[in-house]
Give the backbone structure.
Amino acid sequence: MKQALYLILLTLAPFRCQCQLYDNKWVAGDTPLSFINFDSANVIIDSLANYNLRFTVTVANICDENGQLLYITNGVEVYDSNGDTLQNGTGINPCTYTAQLVCCGLDIPQAALFIPQPGNNRYYYLFHFTDDDTINGGPKTLYYSIVDKEGNNGKGAVAEKNISILQNTLLREGGMTACKHANGRDYWIIMGASVINTFYKFLVTPKGVKGPFTQSIGPGFPLPYDNAYSRFSQDGSKYVTGDYVGPVLVMDFDRCNGVFSNPLTIYNQGCDSPQTCSASSSVEISPNNRFVYVADVTNLNQYDLWASNLQNSVVQLYSDSVDHTHTGELNMLQLSPDGKIYISAWNGLPFYNPLHVINTPNAKGDSCNFKYGSQPTYSHNNKLPNMINYRLGPLAGSGCDTITAINNAQMVQDDAIRISPNPATTTCTLKTDAPNQMCSAIVFDAVGRQVIPLFYNQHLSTFDFNCTSLSTGLYFITVKDEQGKVGVLKLVKQ
């Protein structure tokens, strides 16, 4: 009954809105670049005038809040809507690997992502990374740069460049994505670690970028085929990620606190070992948040998140196991503003360069109306821009807002203060080895309401407390030290 009601409400609410149209135009493909315009009911395909731009795999672009194309990147340079290099737009992701690909852009999926600065129409963040680890051949640093729309006399300019927010950490080969915070204003940036099952999260607010906040959950993703692709559902409640070889991971996501939970692992095509199959070249979730679409190069499958057994819910929509021509194969999946899912074709098809299309992705099985090569374009579309749901609004009734005291405090990011065990069931211990001892500690629930005042006006290095009275869920503990600095720790009560 709840699912049926949800579908009725979704039908009544229009998919498109008249604001925050940051994804309203796409730049895709290779020379000549295709320009895909979602301004009207019918998709308009054109080519970008500047034929000097080249894209290998990495591509991201963003429009202004009214849907007018602003900026494009291939992970090496930043361009304006005409394809001209922005002032200070060269030298993105500096390293030997990047220097080798100045001609045509990075060869990494989802390695760049534009985010508008929350609460400001002038500045745009570009989060980006490259293969700067010469030993492992993968990413090790996560950067952001800032584009000023009013810079260079209104032509736009890169105001700040290559600001590192995560260093000396072996990251996945792709798979960076983002989701709106529950307040409908800020953004969670999500990036996974390679090999180990750790996720790094950053919160983008009007005051800057906070993080990294880390969480270890689900399986690790193996080398050397960790070519990752990740997506959030349109309501931000689900996250799915996979790579060329390995499992596909589906998790719940809390937009308020950025915490993943309930990991489910599936093996695409029903194989029983991550080493024996090509799991996914890309993943996407339907607009009604029900179906997960998983593509490898010659197969497209649909999984039902409402099914009692996600693995067994698979429906094969397309298969061509004998295709070894490397043309027309399935590559990147991307949900568009018109409610369809477009799929790029690896190196196009002979004589024309189409996108594959899932026309009604909210429908189960073959009713989703997958059409092979049905959307012609002007270019070899083996890449689509890395987009997110910029239109997602606040989570009604959550009471969650980054203006609260908890979220304005500096999240504890190292071992200065520790809590154990975590998750906890009966008792917990707060401990610090820092010179400044703990003077106060308060427990808050996930929406910022005070639950337990642990202690005030003390000078402690260790404190034990009983958490039996806490209900199962996530909590925050604010700790103030002798210098008045406030840190926040996360506690999971089981």
